[in-house]
Write a structure and sequence with these properties.
Dihydrodipicolinate Reductase, domain 2; cytoplasm (chains A, B, C, D); arginine biosynthesis (chains A, B, C, D); 14 strands; N-acetyl-gamma-glutamyl-phosphate reductase activity (chains A, B, C, D); 12 helices; alpha/beta; homotetramer
Chain lengths: 345, 345, 345, 345
């Protein structure tokens, strides 16, 4: 299979390079860029020296579409919105890791993203690639909108409760924490080492773009679901997301019932691991892997369930789930190339 | 003033040494220990070499009481419960940094702490040392129970709303994050560098001992207030606490009204700084100092207020607030010895 | 192939689990312990849950020898010295990751290790497993003494110069820096997060056990080589070693000659990557992989060469090189199971 | 005393703000900038909110000279070279924290700095402010060239040996490690958190600008001293420098003699602390303070002395030593405002 990666010099691109090297069907990989044409990939990423002996090609959507069977768009905002149709017109599968195609309602997109939405035809063709919950649509899709990192952690954690209509309306609070790699490779004051180490920050309070993405999917699953509170925080680490989620139940559940909902929901889904009672995941326990680990607690004193969901934002939150979707789209084993043990310690 | 520090080899003791060196009234300091008698303090803490040229004395409560005008108990659980009365019987002021005397109801103490409570007479004499809110009682106290680190951050953040009866019952959720120094100097797997770096953990879900401490104070302020949800997390950093708090309002407030409540509450209180609208504190911005910085946001979509409160757990959450209380007890300027600019970066 | 891992709950054991999961010949793996018999591996290491569904067996050398074709000893000092012979007597291959069998002269061992040496017969049978330089002996060995992490980085960096007799006698200085994982999983004050973060330490000045291991190999390569200066430092990171090495040349070399020596030495050796001129490796560029990256600089002002050699101490410095040796011993492709792209960022 | 800080929004400026707040003679402080005129300092540095209630003034050298008794230049390269004379012409004391005036030979400056040197008159008036070793000249100086961070650590560590002519010519090797704050506040790829955490880097191999600064001072102390090897490394931490230095002795010294040299050299110098034998400093042990801690080891096997010198690069390596020099210039107690206990942990 001929694979193209557009935006190969960002962290999403680098992680695709790492994971695809382990994938038996991905032997012919081309790298595209809009900013570093002709540069050898090892100049951007010395860690792939001798592994990928290739230079970056200029991004021309027509050429990319023609020369690829599948394209990963690991691009800044706006690129996918503009070029996905043309690439896909060559019969090429497109998996978009940017957020351009995630929000189905252009008005909501423009409110939260503060930029024009993609054309409605493109949006409508894009299938939301939350692999565990949208499997059938993914299998027959040509264009995948790969979920955001926070939404992946949050939605996998909330899905069993929301599907079972167990949550009180308006009670969902998501306190999310991420490492810095989600902010990308561009150097900013926010993620400058001297500003970030020995520091813990909250950011984009009540305004993060992943809020409507989570709300949209929850609402699709259960149309009672409305506005949520979602607050992201920045942790002095590179990889990992933890979403600590607080929901009020409609009626009490025993711990057994609670765990049973989750085991049923994720039975046969290899990348979601439910922790035993009184056991909660830490982000490092999924480091470098495609797992989402979930811990659960029901507090009788308050009638509240706390759901703890962790992923590696670069893997299950980006490149890993993209490859999982590639596998589903092509009828391959869902976990092909993704059987990586987390890097620990 | 003759000052004794019991438990000088722990982090609480070390931080007292750092801060008291800057305090004009603290010129005669004795260090006591139960484990390292006779050892020179610089063997435990090379960083104080040439500054404190003194050895650790054995802890004998009678001697300590007799030889000190004020004693800081920076001790493991149980020591203060047992010895505070005897020390205080010499007319000595006692400031207890352990949690032994914080919970007024022995049953609640024993439920959460899983150990016997102190004698009720000792508990009753101890004044809860939340400096900004309990000033008068502190000024006339002989025994201070210094607040926990999490409760300090949480209570300073919630106080204006709870005093104004603005919060819906049962709606308080505190998602708290701390650096590792709060866990003390004893090496444990939990805080082993290889386990903790590049990692983010939740711990003691629904069972942390600071939960009843926060509930007790909130209830005292407003007897409608009941059980809260409090989940602590461990951040790969040494110092700093952020409490992100979610409350549902009884009735909507404008942003102006919300900020006004806080400004009124903390007017003239030098260690609480309220951030401007759309501006939120990071933990490093109070690093090494006695400040508590608070940011606020009201979200119209959900009717929920998010309060962000940060402290340095070693200072405002322990040794700094203890010295602030010492100042209040002795009629000195509240901020004597505590005018430290945060260490940044 | 039936593989046994003795000491599976340490970090060396955990890294073997991670890497062997990727190895096509390693499908039957048994885990042995002296301290946690009967415990499921996921209780020690939640990150391998669902991947390794197995419990720890008691370590009995006879059983281990009988039930395994190859055994990795990832054990504390003394265990291999005592039990390797018995395990090997069953025809089992043994790869020892502890330092028990590295020093051929028992007197030197006892001077530096402060403990009794293994029996001389065992020592004599053990082949030093520096894969790139001892390939033939490894291929026919039954017992491998896997090199220490520092010696691996240092020796790979110095070998081309020492083989070409280019270094002035007594001029070798190795300033080495490591992450904390090399210190193992046991919690200690030295590697307590609060003591280690935002800190940089030197330790075991002039007394580190890896000193005679490096000297022994250098001397074997070039009998002019004598005592070296080796100073290890601890970096606030988990994985990675950098050895910065300073040597005085016997006679000047042009940069071209210098690089040419290294390219010749490592031609066809897939895990050693020589950087281009004016380009130096950082530890993260080999993170999680079996690579050793080497940078070089000759300074005309001083006649000194600086060699910069980086590895991941858990991989090329331990489990990865052990697997590389397993591959060589069994006639498999040297890089089988080790084609991992470094984890970046 | 009226104090001006030019370049107040950089880290050097921020550290001056922190330390001067503790200084009894520094009550009138003006902040100057070339880039953020009119901005309130708390917008750049929220951590000083309520402590410094002042806005940044435009940098006009004439006005600054007229309105200040002493000026700290915490400016990028070139500013001091251009404006120091004019400021000083008003009778104003100038302490320059940039490197503009450190190298007395313009040719050497231009070779290493790759930019034009300052006018020779300015250079000649500037006194090198290594407080412990240049006290008399500093006391009568009008312009101080404050030493670089690395040279401070290195020179304090080497001075006793070089003054006693104990070191073999051409044998000095300085392997130096620094936190990221020395690189300043501008966001760069090099110090981007995702690139820097869990990473250890070498940089500017054989080309760092501090090399000639160290050589110049060593040569001034002992004209046998020539070219040195100096290699800087970047540690994933914010503050702290360790210089590990290797020198060959002319003739053997007993440990007693070695330590005696250092104790004599630093007797009565409050900020240099010599460690006991077999005890070595870690960078955190001077964190946030003006101390330089030094450890020593003589290795009989190699005839080599290892000197370990640590400082906080922001304090003794920049703002702290600048204030120490201010104190000396004005006849105040050398340690006025600098009696800070290191922040530990």
């Amino acid at each position: 299979m001929r694979i193209g990666i557009v935006g190969a010099t960002g962290y999403g691109g680098a992680e695709l390079l790492r994971l695809l090297n382990n994938h038996p069907e991905a032997k012919n990989i081309q790298l595209y860029t809009s900013t570093k044409e002709g540069v050898h990939i090892e100049e951007s990423y010395p860690h792939v020296a001798t592994i990928y002996d290739t230079s970056l090609k200029p991004f021309n959507p027509e050429v990319v579409g023609e020369d690829s069977d599948l394209v990963f768009m690991a691009t800044p905002p706006g690129v996918s919105a503009q070029h996905t149709q043309e690439i896909a017109s060559h019969g090429t599968q497109v998996i978009d890791l940017s957020g351009d195609l995630r929000i189905t309602d252009p008005t909501i997109y423009e409110t939260w993203y503060k930029r024009p939405a993609a054309q409605i035809e493109t949006i409508n063709q894009a299938v939301y690639g939350l692999s565990e919950w949208n499997r059938e649509a993914i299998q027959s899709a040509r264009i995948i909108s790969n979920p955001g990192c926070y939404p992946t952690a949050a939605l996998l954690g909330l899905a069993p409760l929301i599907h079972n209509d167990a949550i009180q309306q308006h009670s969902i609070i998501i306190d999310a924490k991420t490492g810095t790699s989600g902010a990308g490779r561009s150097a900013t004051m926010m993620t400058h080492f001297s500003e970030m180490n020995e520091n813990f920050k909250i950011y984009q309070v009540n305004t993060h773009k992943h809020t409507p993405e989570i709300e949209q999917q929850l609402h699709q699953w259960n149309n009672e679901s409305g506005a949520i509170t979602f607050q992201p925080h920045l942790v002095p680490m590179i990889r990992g997301i933890m979403a600590t989620m607080y929901v009020q139940l409609k009626k009490p559940l025993t711990s057994e019932q609670l765990f049973s909902l989750y085991h049923q929901a994720y039975d046969g889904k290899p990348f979601v691991r439910i922790r035993k009672e009184n056991n909660y995941p830490a982000t490092k326990e999924v480091y470098g892997s495609n797992y989402c680990d979930i811990g659960l607690s029901y507090d009788e004193r308050t009638g509240r369930v706390t759901v703890v969901s962790v992923i590696d934002n670069m893997v299950k939150g980006a490149a890993g789930q993209a490859i999982q979707n590639m596998n589903l789209m092509n009828g391959w084993d869902e976990s092909m190339g993704l059987n990586l043990v987390p890097v620990y310690p």
